[in-house]
Every structure is written in C-alpha cells, then in structure tokens.
Design a protein that fits this description.
The chain is of the alpha+beta class. It has two helices and seven strands, in the order βαββαββββ.
Length: 151
C-alpha cells in the first residue's frame, strides 16, 4: 500500500517572492488554510496546479489539532477508523505552523493541505483533514508563504 502523505517544501535559500497574509478575525466557516487554498482554487483554472509552502503564526487563541499515537496495529480502513485512532487536543497560542497546500491533486491523489504545528511551550500537533484545525480561535494569524508559478 502506498500513501501520498509526504510533503516537502524545498528552497535554495535565495530571495524570492513571498506572499504575506494577515487575518485578524474569522469571517466564515472555513479555516485559515482552507480559505487561502480555496481562494487560489477559485482564481486559477482547474488545469493549472499552484502550490504554496510556508509558515504562519497563530498569535492568540487556541487550536484544535490531532496527535498521532503509535502506529496502528490494525488496518485503518475508513476516515472514522482514523479519527478513532487519533487523539484530538486544544493547544494554546502561540503556535507556529509549517506546511504546504495546493489548488488541486494534479491527478496524483495528493493531500490538498498539510500543516504541522509546534511551539516554545511544548505543545504542537497536526492538521489532518477537516475544517476544525486552527480555528477555534478568531484571533490574529500572520503567514509568509513562498510560491513559484510556471504558467
């Protein structure tokens, strides 16, 4: 079995274009990352894949995230199985998130968004697949996303 759950954002360390995003308040049902991804998806046509990678900071509030337990000893055959295996937690800000998102799967069965979070206070987790990630909070987010687009 193969799982396309390994994302990397590589950089040569050279200066380049950066998309700076700030959000002070939640205005809709989608989370911060999904909102950015869906905005790009609406803008670009379905035959073009745009990927962004970077970091953002949850400055205030709290986040609902999951932490993976030890590898499962039984097959996880459904989303319900996976959610029963994961442990879910609320973690306080500040949290630093690092990851990627893309506008479509490019016919490769890719995960559309994937972010991990860490902090200096020792709490951190993972966004898996849903709309609850990082948006218990309605506080300030600030992100720096790096992109390359080849039309």
């Amino acid at each position: 079995m193969f799982n396309n759950d390994h994302f990397r954002f590589l950089s040569e360390g050279k200066a380049g274009k950066v998309l700076k995003v700030k959000a002070k308040k939640r205005t809709g049902a989608k989370n911060f990352i999904s909102t950015m991804r869906l905005t790009l998806t609406d803008y670009f046509t379905a035959d073009k894949t745009v990927a962004l990678g970077g970091v953002f900071l949850l400055k205030e509030g709290k986040a609902r995230e999951h932490v993976m337990q030890h590898f499962s000893t039984v097959p996880l055959l459904s989303e319900e199985d996976v959610n029963n295996w994961l442990t879910f937690h609320e973690f306080p800000a500040p949290l630093i998130a690092v990851g990627t998102f893309l506008t479509n799967e490019a016919d490769l069965d890719l995960r559309l968004q994937h972010f991990h979070n860490f902090s200096k206070h020792g709490k951190g987790g993972h966004y898996h697949n849903g709309e609850s990630f990082l948006l218990i909070s309605e506080k300030l987010y600030e992100g720096h996303l790096f992109y390359r687009y080849n039309p």
